[in-house]
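Next up, sample data:
>
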Amino acid sequence: MRVGVLRETKDRELRVALLPAGARTLAAAGHEVVLETGAGDASGFPDEQYEAAGASIGKSSEEVIAESDVVTKVKEPTPAEIAAMRPGQALFDFLHLAPEPALTRANYLQGDQGGRGVLLGGVPGVPRGRVTVIGAGIVGTAAVRMAVGLGAEVSVLDIDQRRLSHLYDIYHGGISTLYSNVVNLEQAVLEADLVIGAVLVPGARAPVLVTRDLVAQMKHGAVIVDVAVDQGGCVETIRPTSHSKPIYVVDGVIHYGVPNMPGAVPRTSTLALNNATFPYLMEMCRRGIDGALRASPALARGVNCYRGHVTQKGVAEALGVPVAAAPWAPSR
């Protein structure tokens, strides 16, 4: 199998989809790796390390794509990259197809950033900042951990009572765990200095839970960070921004909508990303695409499109197209 690694082009997306160690592992197993020149530079992995690992270097994305059976990158491909791909090629990356985990620091609450001038941890004799986290999944749990670590007063909402109970037990009742209904959501958002949207429906557009009217009633200088902005976000007023222009203000509320937040710490996030994704890439190379999909239910659940058909229900519903049956699924 020939694996092509593309350089990232999204604003300040500094990660790379494959480490030199991964290239060496693939090469040792008899596979070929071609890397677009400079793809690993920003993460601290120059071309020379890939060449030493047995990879070859391509001068352009078109050259890499033309030589590859599997094309991998971190963020979605550009129109030019899509145009260069051919039928039967596999694209292995993170796609957010419905609308078009990592958190950001909450420094926009500072007065010099236009925020409320609130220190989340507070100081003796002064109330702590209030953080509301919408969603208690992986990202929401990480947000809670960060906010608790900063000393904030934390509320987390979800519709899954098991997740709420888990967080309640972890923090020994030191956070507010709220069932996500209209009343609890509105109260928690209006009391918050920082609202973190962490709602994700796999493949589908995130549901809008925080309306424009509710945003207008929030504290002046409060901050919204919507981690699900790639999937449309759970805040009606959120839209994707970039690392170079990360924020904008609506009704006095600061909005942070950077879709590739981990790209700001590329070396650490690249290492973490590859730890999670490389086993799947290796399985695809070892078994072939169809064989890997049949052997790995986890990998199969991540397929959005297969041979010209949409196989992810959430994506199909969002785009108004029929969902195709997955050919690798066992017959019933």
